[in-house]
Amino acid sequence: MDRLVDYFAVVGCDHVATGDNIGEVEGKVVTKLPDQDWKDQPFIHGLELFCQPNGWFATHEREPPKYFIAVLTDELGKRRYLAVLSFCEPAVEDESELQPGGITRRESSKTVRIKGQNEDVDESMCEVYVDEESEGSSGLMSPSSTRSNKSTSDSYYPKCLVLISRHPEFAVFKNCLGLIYTIYIEGLSVSLEMVIANLLMVTVPPRGAPVTRFTIGAADRQALETPECEELPVTKSTVATLLRHLGILNVMNVLTAALVDQKLLFYSCSLSRLSDSCNALTALMFPFSYSYPYIPILPKKLLECTSSPTPFLIGVHSSLRPELHDLVDVISVDLDGGVVSVPECITIPHIPEPYYSQTVELLTKVLCPDLVVADYAYPPDVVNISDPAKLDKEIRAIFLRLFCRLLMGYRSFLQVCRIHPKPVIRFQKEEFLLSRGYDKIESAASAEFMPKLLESQAFSLFVQEWGPPYRRLTVFDREVAEISGRMKKEEGCIVKALAHMKELSSELYKNENPSSVPPIQKVPKPSEGAHLRPTQSRFPRLSPTAVQTFMADKVSKSRAKNLNPLKRPNMLVPFGSSIAHKDKSNQVSASARRIDVMRSCVQFIFESRSLETKKIFQAVLRALKGRSVRTALSPQLVKYSKIKPCLDNQQFEYIARLCNAALDDSSGEDDEQALAANLLPVLSTFYRKLSQTVMQCLYTVVQEHPVWASVEFWYYLFFRDVQSEMCRLYERKRNKEDVDMSLISAQHSGNINTKCLEIAASELRDKLFKSEKETDELALAEEGVILGQIQHTAQLMIFLLVPLDEAPSARESNMKILSDPHRNEDGSYITSSIGESMRDGTDDDDISYSNEGINVKGVIEKFVSVFVDRTCSDTGISADNSKNLLRKVTDLVSMQHESLQDVAKESKNLPPIKKVKLLQPKTLPGEVLYVSHTLRAYLSHDGRRVATGGVAGGPALLPAEGAIFLSNYRVMFIGVPCDALASEQVVIRSFPLSALHKVKPFTDHDKAKEQDIESMHYVSLLSSTFQLLVIGYDDDVTEEKRLAFQSKLEWLRNPSTIDQVFAVSQQMTPVGRLQSITSEKSLKVVKSGSDASMSSHKSKSVMKQVKKKTGVGKQPKLGNLMTADGKVSTIYRSTLDFTMPQKSSVPDVEMRSISDQAMTRMISDKKTLDFMYRIACRHDYKRLKLLDSTTNFRLTSVNGIFSVCKSYPVCAVVPKTVTDESLKSLAHSHHMNRFPCVIWMHPKSKRILIRSGALRSRTAAAMLKHNKTSRSLSDEGTPGSTAEVERFFMQVIAACLQGSPTKNEGNGNSVATNDKQVTKRNKNNGFKSSFREGRPESIISLKSSKRWGTLTRVIGRPTTDMINATLKPGGKMLLGKQNSSSSDTLRPRSASFAMQKAELFVFVDKHIAKTIKTELRGSVRFVSLGVPEAKQVRSSYKTLLKACLPMEVARNLHGPEPDSFRTAVEDSGWLHQLSSLLSSAASVVDILDTQSASAMIALETGWDETPQITSLVQLLSDPYFRTIKGFETLVRKDWLSFGHRFSHRNNFNQDISTGFTPIFLQFLDCVHQVMNQFPLAFEFNGIFLQTIAYHSTSNRFNTFLLDSDCERLDAGILIGKDKSELLRKSIRNSVNGTADWEGHERILSLWEYIRLAQNRSQVFHNPLYSTSNHISQTVLRPIPALCRMVVWPYLTCEALADCPIYDGLLGEFFSTKSSPNDAPESGEGWSVPSGRRVVNPAYDNVFEVQQNTINSLKHQVDSLMKELGQEPLSFRDIFKEAGQKKANVPLPVVTAREESRILSRKFASALTTHNVTNDQYGEIVLMQEFDGETLRPGVLDLFDASSIYQLQTSSSEERTCEGTLWKQGAFMKGWKQRFFVLDSTKHQLRQYESSLDHNCKNIFDMKEVESVKRVAAVSGAPKGTGDNAFFELKTSKRIFHFIADSEEAAQKWIDAIQSSLEA
Question: Running DSSP on this structure, what letter comes out for residue 1534?
């Protein structure tokens, strides 16, 4: 029996040694008893640190004694317990007075005995001396007269009494130390030496023994009671206390952190609480044990332990908390406050559900039992609450139950690796996680718990301790075996779970308290306040000799008592219910078809049936993505490996591809290791002969997979094979048949594990009956098996790791993994390697990294050596055998390396793999291919999954193999699908170079493996035309070629001059000729272009500085307008610049004036001027009758030489009253000098639409905010003054109100006007002759009106005099308060001036609108228009581009992929911006149409938002712009002539743009939205818009090049390069006084291309276009609601059959001998034409096919007309003739139109304007008011425009028979009553829900009907139906039964259907 206490020690202060702090001293062991160490348990040194954890300090007050338990751990991991009782004693001057024993006995004492003493108590130890008068309950008395050693000071020093033990009997320790302290403090006449000797002689009874009572001779009665099961921890009530301190959730988190090896640090101001809490936490972990540093009380001197890198469980006193710093990875637990602090870098995993929630619920019901009956209607009066000890066991039972559920079935995954001399057990972690479904947990935090638990040190010790199959059982073994059946019985019932918990808790309580009645104990205690006595003496010195004497006497007198322990025999551990793998029956049955295909393919391979193999081989590769097919592949190959191991080259390649595909698909999956292990026999068996003496094994071609570099895989393989060999070994010894255990282990790992555990249990049971010799023989046999398996596995490792060729860089990653063998080390074992010394000596020598790469041999040798060493250590192999194996590793690696050299040499002589032939693309006229930059590549699929087959459907066109081509116009890929048998079509993708948006090179080895292509280096090319190329370079393409290609691509994408753009350079290149342009030539072009650009830039910079100093030309420059940095030369090299001689005396300013003169001469040319007027859309102004003599507008050429505004056209429409000089002055008031111009006039109301740049801030502020003229320049009338703006507003209103121009108004041909004319005109109009005479005065007296002055009108239409009367001389329009001192004001003629309606609405930006006074009401109304800004459009476009062209497939967990796409489009905000633009445009339309007012758009610079709004307004209002010709005019006028920054917004190059900003594309998308709602109102179709959108960024045509007509004219692309050269020549001649120039034809533009394509075939014509007036002549009011916005097909549609159709509309890609109608099916003329065409939406362009269908119909019409002797008509004539036919509009549609018009007129009369705040774009648009309710524009349009004009087909139906029938779709289905219509014309039987339903639910095609007949009554028919009313309809697919109303009705239906069939 073991000793209860090993040592007793007295620890006090060492006054000689001082501590770190002031007043601190060191502690020392004063007395150690016994003074000699025990042999089995040496004394613990340094325990004085734990006696006073906070330090040894003196105090000035007596403190009460304290008791706590400290725990220490020795080097073997065994815990030693220190029971410490500390107290204070006074300091004395002379300690020599203390005598051994310390206390003298009184002479008057007598001896007494304790009555009622048990016979087991040693009576000799119970003799004590007591006073005669003091016999009481305690039997002890302290003689105060004998006290000595008085205190000499007020200081008190701590002293500690310490017990050192190996047994956690904390209560007994406390009693014994308390008795010793009582004897001391009370001065009892008891020998302390005797008491301590008795304590040291007390022994601990064995487990299960009865209660042992003892005494230590101080009138005490104590008892020892050991638990029945020593494996179960003893906690008393500490667990319940821990939950009370922290709470349920905190305890769950702390327990989880301890299980997953996190660092835990407990804080408390109580040392006992620290010890109890740490003990409780480790008890809750049962059956796991805590093996890391466990220090419940950490001394102050050892605080650096908290910086340990390993996990720990430490308790620290709260007073030491400020001294701890930088605990970034430590979880802090405050026991006093109940707070758990988790650092941000730590994530505590959660216990998976439903275990977590069920455990929390049980704990809640146990801790709060009143919750169980809280909802009862009649709850009991008293709710029983368990006492703390029982509550403690209930809580532990709940956690024990939790771990049983988590580890359910764990024994099925234990592998027995060795039985003798001791068991070696390994746990299969991956298989356990897979079988339990822990790998399928959705929550990330819950999914991490079980993997981390299995990797923890606690689980490793659990496997070692609980893994052996034959041992003593505990309650955990029983519960974990029965938990599966118990869970089924409970079925989630909390009541049953609580009952089970009660049973477990009673067992745990009985284990700690075996006796039913607790023993009676008696322990004397000191009197209250004894430590405060002033005459307290110091603790006496103890005599070790006396203690030894008492112990010797005790031994001689003691009677030996043999106590038999409770026998708990070893038993077979129950296995419990085994868990079947989830991937067995269901998955195999579901994949049976795929498995059959795989088996057939393998059979075809070995039978050399190449054709059949090719047909299904790609399907097998796709099928290998399924786990069931991969699992079935290994046995199939193993079967053939035994028959035919030698393969030919083709078979070898096929088998290698199958193995590689299986390994690739399993990478990262749960079956990766199992598959690789099963394939190893195949890889080492199959081979092919390279020569007569050289053979290549299959493993040499599968070495690149990372599984071979995983150390876990080789451990998995080794232990699996060892277990099988162990089973075979013992099966042979039992004379049973030799079973193929490897096959069992491969397919039934659960069975082999159970079988090995049974064998191990049997062997361990029989071990007691075997001799030592037999045991040694078995151990030697097992060691032989293990040695052979280690060597075999090491040989396989060498086979798979030694590369065939060390050159490929793909091996480098695996070699780096191998060079760090401890990276993937399994944490399940604690091993002490015997080969560390050998490895340490060879690491630095063998592993070296040179410049050429990694030393492959050294890395492999180290990796294999580490494996051998560890497996030998884990399996208990002797040191000699381990060293022998390690020596063989080097030889094996060298032999394999030498043998592979010949294989590598012969393998290079194999014939190369045939690659596909490169197809040459057809080029456009002027397009040149750069042959040197043509690279072999693969076209990979992207996130759209288009044309990939599989779930997407269609043939597997991608990935495709071919080449990527680069030309001066586009980048394109042309190839064929990699799966040639899946599709034989040509795959093409291309886009223009100028549309290249982003280039991203990347490396993706996994993507290459997934698509089975030989490529690792990729590049993604993203286009602004919404096209994406994911190109994978071929392995033959070197890095140098890749970099050269990308460099060339970047150079072509960013041209430095306009001459390098394809639209300009194509004139200089021979058409259709394939040229080879090398990189050197390209570099020369770049250099020359850049030099020219730099020289031009330098000259212009000098000119700019001269102008700035001299003050010449202060109008905005073109560079400032069109570029971000003010440098025109970065866009193009101006043809107007000319090179002067170096010694020229002509200054730059003079040369510029000469250039202006030359420009003036050129513009003054009649032909040129007519051409410039024509491109400025003068004809459109004439069509609008703006230039008629009856109107008040004129065409001004004030900007004839672009002197006023560089971005405006040469001519513009303005009111006649506005002079050219006023325009020049007015231009300074607007941004970029973009003065207001009239662009459209309403045909009925004659109101106009004006556009301009935004008002300058100084002008707006002066006019609107302070209502003063800006003083920054000069007074009124000067450039940029407020007066000019106000005067212009009034002139616009007057021009609109007047019916015809007056005599005094100027003519429309006033290009130059003198001052007299201006003065005269101003005088006649009531203006002063001088704008500088006085200040303007208010029109309306503020005192009389009492409101802000506004420009108003009288009732009725005002005259010219009335308008002039409202103007003060000086032309000021009063819009705000005036500070005028003049009292001469002009009174209004009528009071209605104050309430007039606005005649002009000026739409401005938000920042200008904020300055407007809300009280302003006048003829001019300022409204803020909230439209998306350019930066918002750019941001939205980027997000939209990612949504439409995703690189990866969207991983949407909450819905299908289409929902993910729609969500991404919505998140981009693109549709919101379209809705905002349409809503704003609709507001302006309402102003012009229903409000009869003019509108002026003055936003920002006037070239982004302004053309969007003005173009949409004209498109909605004017039917002409909805034609093909009209839309061209609209774009020419609003986007080209008036300037839009196409070069900047389309990202011409990186120097002048901040990114692609699709302003124009957004406008086209808005047009598409309108077309979608009004499909009959547009002459053109979607292809027309898409073509314009495509070529607006393609740079194929010069239409959208540069930013204005001035730049295009200057660059020579507006009137042709030749004319530009003549212009340059004329400039030079003008210097000499001569000039000669002739006109020249301009180059081909996009509009000419569209006209040619339209004449060729009506590709742009809308077949639904209606020319009737009620459709084509109406104002369109689309619904701008977001729900009506759709995604434009241009953003998503793409065909692989051909290049984008927008480049081949003239048949550029067709051969000259073939017509466009006979276009080849695969695109670009590579396939043989066929008469029939099969359309695949994933491959062909559906729109092109539809147009070809229309062309074929046109040919049929032409042939019929020729037969009739008539001339064929053109497309336009045919459509025009068809449109003249009056449509038969149904009456409901006519009624709906009339109601819509009435509502529109009714509400339009009450329309006003307000500033409205939009959520996204701020203040937005006009609103409609009616009866106090505000409605958005378009909300009144309750009718869907597209549905009103839909063609009605009901009139064309011919209902042969209709009625209600009962229908039964299948025999077992029910009868349903439906309405049916038989249409004999269309040969259809249609099904509706009822007679009122217009939506057909089902259609029966008469072609599929085989028969109809009457049948007998069918069972289950509805009640009330006649027996003869049944008939049957049989189709080719199924049979339907019907029931008519009567027999006659049934016969009628049968006859009608039969007649339809015969027809």
Answer: I
